[in-house]
Prior knowledge:
The complex is a heterodimer of chains A (about 475) and B (about 230).
Chain A: H1 16-27, H2 30-83, H3 85-95, E1 104-109, E2 115-118, E3 134-138, E4 142-150, E5 156-162, H4 164-214, H5 230-279, H6 284-315, E6 324-327, H7 328-345, E7 348-352, E8 359-362, H8 364-381, E9 390-399, E10 402-408, H9 441-451, E11 455-460, E12 465-472
Parallel strand pairs in A: 7-9
Antiparallel strand pairs in A: 1-2, 1-5, 3-4, 4-5, 6-8, 9-10, 10-12, 11-12
Chain B: E1 2-6, H1 10-22, E2 26-30, H2 33-42, E3 47-51, H3 59-68, E4 75-79, H4 84-92, E5 97-100, H5 105-119, E6 127-130, E7 133-136, E8 141-144, E9 147-149, H6 153-164, E10 170-171, H7 172-178, H8 190-202, E11 211-214, E12 218-221
Parallel strand pairs in B: 1-2, 1-3, 3-4, 4-5
Antiparallel strand pairs in B: 6-7, 7-8, 8-9, 10-12, 11-12
Amino acid sequence: xxxxxxxxxxxxxxxxxxxxxxxxxxxxxxxxxxxxxxxxxxxxxxxxxxxxxxxxxxxxxxxxxxxxxxxxxxxxxxxxxxxxxxxxxxxxxxxxxxxxxxxxxxxxxxxxxxxxxxxxxxxxxxxxxxxxxxxxxxxxxxxxxxxxxxxxxxxxxxxxxxxxxxxxxxxxxxxxxxxxxxxxxxxxxxxxxxxxxxxxxxxxxxxxxxxxxxxxxxxxxxxxxxxxxxxxxxxxxxxxxxxxxxxxxxxxxxxxxxxxxxxxxxxxxxxxxxxxxxxxxxxxxxxxxxxxxxxxxxxxxxxxxxxxxxxxxxxxxxxxxxxxxxxxxxxxxxxxxxxxxxxxxxxxxxxxxxxxxxxxxxxxxxxxxxxxxxxxxxxxxxxxxxxxxxxxxxxxxxxxxxxxxxxxxxxxxxxxxxxxxxxxxxxxxxxxxxxxxxxxxxxxxxxxxxxxxxxxxxxxxxxxxxxxxxxxxxxxxxxxxxx
Amino acid sequence: xxxxxxxxxxxxxxxxxxxxxxxxxxxxxxxxxxxxxxxxxxxxxxxxxxxxxxxxxxxxxxxxxxxxxxxxxxxxxxxxxxxxxxxxxxxxxxxxxxxxxxxxxxxxxxxxxxxxxxxxxxxxxxxxxxxxxxxxxxxxxxxxxxxxxxxxxxxxxxxxxxxxxxxxxxxxxxxxxxxxxxxxxxxxxxxxxxxxxxxxxxxxxxxxxxxxxxxxxxxxxxxxxx
Lengths: 483, 226
């Protein structure tokens, strides 16, 4: 079978390449993808917020340092004004200590650009044309902030402070945050992996079952976890669907078996009749006789075929069920009238029992056909035991909102054990098949009932059989028509 | 009678043509909807036999179009689609009768002749007569050789239909359809029983039977032998 390609979804396998493939499959699951997208979005947003926070903090701290430096610059201005030309240089030399984190940085520069005093070697390029001062780097790239001051004698003074401490703080915070985010992402992704693994296991179960069903075992069902979650709901629905499909398949198989039997039998009979007629040496009259028998056989086959097609169409719902509104009581009366003479000829009486007035919306032709089939059956199989009067009784009633059309006979009836079986197509309890018929009569009635949302019941008429065509109250055309 | 067959199955069409010719009719053939409608428009046919499923233009559309153009030639639909709903569709489209494949040729012939007869002015007659059997459609009285024949309402309708088509074969299916308006295959001989009862009322006690059984096809009401 082409469909039975095995689909292996089991994750547990021995070889490492299998494990790798399993892991790759895990990463490809939608559950994992959703988790990954969520984690990525969270991390990006958090990074943007934290980045802004760092940038702001850094700027604030630098501004704070610059304010401190402004005070220092004021002090140097005072010295320059009151202390004379050498005073500033002395003050710078006194204050400029070794460079360490957080230390004061100073540079007194000649007009030409050469260093006169201080612990910085050269004027920072970042501050070349920034009279308001700002951040710069010194030495081996350490951060610092400084303010320039032009002195009356033409020299330049840079008052600055090393910011390595501040940078170290920011860096540590940054690392803390990065590590935190990393950890968070890993935990999130791991959670996603676990979730998808769990889901994959459930999905794999469904896929496995599906594969087994495709391989031909229609009786397989998906196991439920019992947790009543959405997977259980899905599985329950799929199981219900599978049950329906299995039922339909069984029906189809049965139908094809039956067709094979009940159409092939008359077809082979037809063929042998034709052959026999051809072989007859007596010639023309035998041929004519043979051919007319062949036509009879063909007609019987056509009748069976038509009934089968009609049942198939009814069961597929391909026929309009509420075609028209009509007087059901009159319809039963008319069909009874059609059959009364036939019943009389057969030595039976067709009795119209209680037939209250009822109008329904249904498929008139189908109800006529169903009723005719039931009366036909009663005439054929309802012959009473010797010495008793044959009676076929037609009744109509509305019981608990259901319309019941009953045809009852006084024949041998159907044993309770066989009642289910005769609903099936082609089942004829009369094994000798002495009566003509397709064996589809009751199946057709049942199909008509089902099309209208009703059912067919077989009841004991003690003695005899009562077949009831039960239709839902919805077929009633008007409520007041109820007795 | 001049008959136009519009049927895409060439073999089935030829068989039908041959059989109809043997029955004394003139037959034209078309094998698809386009040719069919062109031939049908020319007129001059007494009956159109139209298959439901045709290449180029399906039978339903073909008949609908003809009717819209005012072509009133009687149409008999032939179709493998035989469910109740299909029949209703065919009649709504403007068909006059509907026959499901496979069919008996005698059934087809009987229906064609009745279709053509239906157009003749008989429909408005108030009195039908076959031999000495008279049916008065106004008073609903039936007499044979001047003597009243008492009929049940359904028997009256059965006789009325057979008298309207006197001299024609009417099949059991036709009677079930036209007199009872039932469209199914009865598995018992219901129609035969009704006809034999009617025969008992109109022919019993008379030398010349009027209601004849046509073997293999149906019945015929006729003064004289068949």
